[in-house]
């Protein structure tokens, strides 16, 4: 009897949880379905079964020159993340392994730079980009995105590095390892998972950035976020095509995101929740 | 000797990140401050002159400014309320022994990875469009007339979209916190006959307090800067009905070419963000180690 009720309860909770999950996922699901419809089907009313045509994907790729923004997105997201890692790894390393009295203050200060609203520096950044010819260039935007995410990268790496036990270093030193051996054979292998998580999360954040990319690009360097935003007035791009463009813009990051749930919590809470 | 060497090396390793962030923080902010005292319009740069406090007076006596501040507060508080309450409820639900928990988690977390312009366009066209949206189909099914969401309830519609984007974040963090709850304590309370609501109020909620604080803090930082969702749906309208402070400053800088006015607005945004940051940090200070 008790077993039966607990089984019924489990069925009840499962149904409720799946209902809520599908409700939340529905807008994405319906976009995927619509992207597989023809334009006529797309505006014909609610229908969950498309005709599975790839027409819209082909049209978006050929007519709207989709590959340029896609390439820009990849270059900006990966480029800014790698740049941030190059600067942040040594800094986080130093703060984790030879902390000083001020290390905590420096970390808090770095966090506080994230609290500055982007729009507060819109005017100077816009004018600098305009005057130095950085406007609508990949290099300008890559550096900017690197600066925006640098505090998060340093923080995330710091929380990972701090978990590497110091005793291991002492043990290696006792066994006669040089500083070079220490870094190469002891620390690096232990640091790589943390670095990989940071890399993943930062690529996601940079890919989805949509304030600066819209402000500072027109056509040349526009990544997908700016490209899609230009469809806000839907002349020429209809429901099925808009859906296809949307699916292509979010699919890579959605898949990456599914793999990085844990790192997401840690990275975005600056290690406060694990 | 060796330690001094390591300290020197450590300083050298820290320096690039600190210097870069220092420049990034100070230079643009000083420029904004300087521009905010200039009468400077990009359409007429030859007429640039010093105007003292004029831009600030102009900005905060503008009725649009008051409306934008109000909209910013409504948007931030509305999204926080929906995501925290909804996040707690969904986290509790997912934490139950259910079949397919992994997939449910993936489905719930997904909206967070949708870039803001795409999220806004999906809702604008697929869901809320007055003739082709799913909600219009639902309304017609029940014999009601479809709602033109962005014309009639612009700010509410944007709040809904942003809440959809941030609900996964709140859920995921609250779920992580919930899963670190001591099960023995819960079982003991259950054996002692504590009803479910009492267990929630006296065990679960206090345990999640820190995570809730973190969610509120981090979301507030991001929510103050909501921009793309407004740009692609209502463009701030009708009138200024869905313009927040970020969008108002964008409008001054990019559509009116009013550099001085936008800079003054930017300084006001910094002050506002800092007030909230200080207020939040103090209110939650005891929760953050």
Automatic annotation (TrEMBL), chain A:
Residues 70-260 form the ABC transmembrane type-1 domain. SUPFAM superfamilies: MetI-like (SSF161098). It is found in: Cell membrane. Pfam families: BPD_transp_1. PROSITE patterns: ABC_TM1 (PS50928). It is a multi-pass membrane protein. InterPro entries: BP-dep_ABC_trans_perm (IPR050901), MetI-like (IPR000515), MetI-like_sf (IPR035906). Its main location: membrane. This is Carbohydrate ABC transporter permease. It comes from Paracoccus aerius.
Automatic annotation (TrEMBL), chain B:
The chain crosses the membrane at residues 12-37, 68-94, 106-123, 155-179, 200-228, 259-281. Gene3D superfamilies: MetI-like. It holds the Pfam family BPD_transp_1. Residues 69-280 form the ABC transmembrane type-1 domain. CDD domains: TM_PBP2. It is a multi-pass membrane protein. It is found in: Cell membrane. SUPFAM superfamilies: MetI-like. InterPro entries: MetI-like (IPR000515), MetI-like_sf (IPR035906). The keyword Iron does not apply. Keywords: Cell membrane, Membrane, Transmembrane, Transmembrane helix, Transport. PANTHER family: BLR7065 PROTEIN (PTHR43005), INTEGRAL MEMBRANE SUGAR TRANSPORT PROTEIN (PTHR43005:SF2). Belongs to the binding-protein-dependent transport system permease family. This is Sugar ABC transporter permease. The lineage of its organism: Bacteria, Pseudomonadati, Pseudomonadota, Alphaproteobacteria, Rhodobacterales.
């Amino acid at each position: 009897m008790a077993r039966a009720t607990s089984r019924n309860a489990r069925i009840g909770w499962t149904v409720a949880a799946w209902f809520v999950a599908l409700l939340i996922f529905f807008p994405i699901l319906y976009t995927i379905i619509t992207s597989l419809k023809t334009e006529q089907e797309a505006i014909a009313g609610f229908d969950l079964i498309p005709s599975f045509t790839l027409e819209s994907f082909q049209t978006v790729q050929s007519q709207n020159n989709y590959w340029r923004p896609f390439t820009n997105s990849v270059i900006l997201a990966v480029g800014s993340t790698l740049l941030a890692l190059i600067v942040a790894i040594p800094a986080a390393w130093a703060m984790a392994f030879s902390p000083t009295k001020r290390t905590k203050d420096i970390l808090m200060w770095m966090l506080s730079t994230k609290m500055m609203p982007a729009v507060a520096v819109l005017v100077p950044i816009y004018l600098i980009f305009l005057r130095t010819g950085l406007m609508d260039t990949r290099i300008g935007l890559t550096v900017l995105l690197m600066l925006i995410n640098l505090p998060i990268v340093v923080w995330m790496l710091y929380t990972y590095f701090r978990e590497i036990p110091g005793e291991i270093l002492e043990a290696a030193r006792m066994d006669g390892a040089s500083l070079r051996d220490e870094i190469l054979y002891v620390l690096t292998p232990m640091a790589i998972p943390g670095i990989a998580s940071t890399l993943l999360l930062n690529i996601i954040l940079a890919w989805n950035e949509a304030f600066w990319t819209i402000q500072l690009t027109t056509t040349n360097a526009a990544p997908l976020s700016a490209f899609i935003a230009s469809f806000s007035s839907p002349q020429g791009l209809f429901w099925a095509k808009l859906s296809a463009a949307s699916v292509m813009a979010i699919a890579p990051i959605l898949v990456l995101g599914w793999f990085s749930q844990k790192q997401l919590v840690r990275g975005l809470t600056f290690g406060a929740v694990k | 000797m060796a330690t001094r060497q390591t300290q020197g090396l450590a300083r050298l390793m820290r320096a690039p990140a600190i210097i870069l962030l220092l420049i990034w923080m100070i230079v643009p902010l000083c420029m904004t401050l300087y521009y905010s005292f200039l009468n400077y319009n990009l359409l007429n740069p030859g007429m640039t002159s010093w105007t003292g406090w004029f831009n600030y007076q102009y900005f905060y006596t503008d009725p649009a400014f008051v409306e934008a501040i109000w909209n910013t507060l409504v948007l931030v508080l509305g999204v926080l309320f929906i995501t925290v309450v909804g996040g707690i409820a969904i986290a509790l639900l997912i934490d139950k022994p259910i079949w397919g928990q992994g997939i449910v988690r993936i489905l719930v977390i997904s909206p967070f990875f949708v870039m803001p312009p795409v999220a806004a366009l999906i809702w604008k066209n697929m869901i809320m469009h007055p003739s082709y949206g799913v909600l219009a189909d639902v309304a017609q099914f029940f014999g009601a007339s479809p709602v033109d969401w962005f014309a009639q309830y612009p700010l509410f519609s944007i709040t809904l979209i942003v809440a959809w984007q941030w609900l996964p974040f709140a859920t995921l963090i609250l779920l992580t916190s919930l899963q670190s709850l001591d099960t023995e304590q819960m079982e003991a309370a259950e054996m002692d006959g504590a009803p479910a609501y009492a267990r929630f109020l006296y065990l679960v909620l206090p345990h999640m307090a820190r995570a809730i604080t973190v969610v509120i803090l981090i979301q507030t930082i991001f929510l103050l800067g909501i921009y793309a969702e407004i740009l692609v749906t209502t463009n701030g309208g009708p009138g200024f009905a869905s313009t927040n402070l970020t969008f108002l400053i964008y409008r001054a800088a990019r559509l009116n070419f009013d550099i001085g006015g936008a800079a003054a607005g930017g300084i006001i945004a910094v002050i506002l963000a800092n007030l909230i940051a200080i207020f939040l940090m103090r209110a939650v200070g005891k929760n953050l180690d």
